[in-house]
Design goal:
The protein is an all-alpha fold. It is built from 14 helices and four strands.
């Protein structure tokens, strides 16, 4: 009995000391966080309070694949604390939607709501959540869009999809919201469709297509021109050149097309490149023909190797070209098509 009393006293003393230590410990600055989304996410099953550092790090809103990223929600507000709808708004929505697969839609919606309620106050909070809910409904409906045309390589197919997309947006958003969320995307889609129409127009020559492509490109905003100029011009040059060559067109036609598309200075550079490519192709073909003659001759293997090495040095006078031609040798010996640049 005496031992029992001693243990009781010791237990009480330990509990009191532990309580005193906990009371004296410094506490983190915290913010309140709704329990529902956090618990449902499975990331913080028992936690009802989050530190500022945890909120900044995205806990519990992010999926495992996003754990090393920051939440991409750079939402802009005006002086009245109302949302300014722009491309960043859409980027924020899409950042949460990309978690689909790791989370279901309902969980994503709950997490987004919890995040917005944590970092924004009304009227921005209600405005953001209302737009978010309509955006989710729009994205779900977008998956059901189908074009009547079955030819997915035709401009008509993509134009039909684009028109249905624009009509669908009008069911969920105002004109201001559509411009803010999709204005930049619409510019690119419309440009791409108009470009496809020009390239597919059988009533135009390649030179005429080049001129129209150049005029269409100049209608883009300057920042778009800066980003797309090299890529689009290179692609258009390849396509139109291939079309001319496929129908047996002349070098003069290729030159006129280039002048219309990229101007005289770039045309001169392309012609110099053509000359260099033709010279390379001629030397490679002559070398491979002479090499075949050596390999089928009656010399010993050592003599053949020495003769081929001398032949390679005769046709290709620097180490870079000699290394490059080894690829052509391998393809040629395997019976493949030689990888000449077009």
């Amino acid at each position: 009995m005496q031992k029992y009393k001693i243990w009781m006293v010791l237990s009480i003393v330990i509990i009191c000391v532990a309580g005193l230590i906990f009371w004296l410990m410094p506490q983190d600055k915290t913010i309140k966080q709704p329990v529902g989304p956090a618990a449902a996410s499975g990331l913080l099953p028992q936690q009802t309070v989050l530190t500022q550092a945890q909120v900044k790090a995205g806990i519990p809103y992010l999926s495992p694949s996003q754990k090393d990223t920051e939440i991409n929600c750079q939402l802009r507000l005006d002086s009245s604390n109302r949302l300014i709808i722009n491309e960043q708004t859409r980027n924020c929505f899409e950042y949460f939607i990309t978690q689909y697969g790791e989370k279901n839609i309902e969980q994503i919606k709950l997490d987004f709501k919890s995040y917005i309620q944590t970092v924004h106050k009304d009227p921005a909070q209600s405005q953001i959540l209302g737009l978010w809910n309509r955006y989710i409904d729009y994205r779900i409906a977008l998956g059901d869009l189908q074009a009547s045309s079955t030819d997915r390589d035709s401009t008509q197919y993509y134009r039909a999809i684009f028109n249905k997309m624009k009509n669908l947006r009008q069911q969920f958003f105002s004109a201001y919201e559509i411009e803010g969320l999709f204005g930049t995307e619409n510019i690119y889609h419309q440009y791409t469709l108009d470009r496809m129409d020009i390239l597919d127009d059988k009533n135009l020559s390649e030179s005429e297509k080049a001129q129209k492509l150049k005029e269409l490109f100049k209608q883009l905003p300057q920042d778009w021109q800066d980003n797309l100029e090299q890529l689009n011009k290179l692609e258009d040059l390849r396509k139109l050149t291939a079309d001319i060559q496929a129908r047996g067109g002349s070098n003069d036609e290729i030159r006129q097309m280039r002048l219309n598309l990229v101007g005289p200075e770039a045309t001169q550079r392309l012609e110099r490149l053509d000359t260099e490519r033709d010279d390379w192709k001629s030397r490679v073909n002559q070398y491979l023909s002479a090499r075949d003659h050596i390999k089928t001759g009656g010399m010993s293997e050592a003599a053949k190797d020495q003769a081929i090495q001398q032949l390679r040095q005769q046709y290709f006078n620097n180490a870079q070209e000699q290394l490059r031609v080894e690829t052509f040798e391998t393809v040629h010996d395997q019976g493949g098509k030689l990888p000449f640049a077009n």
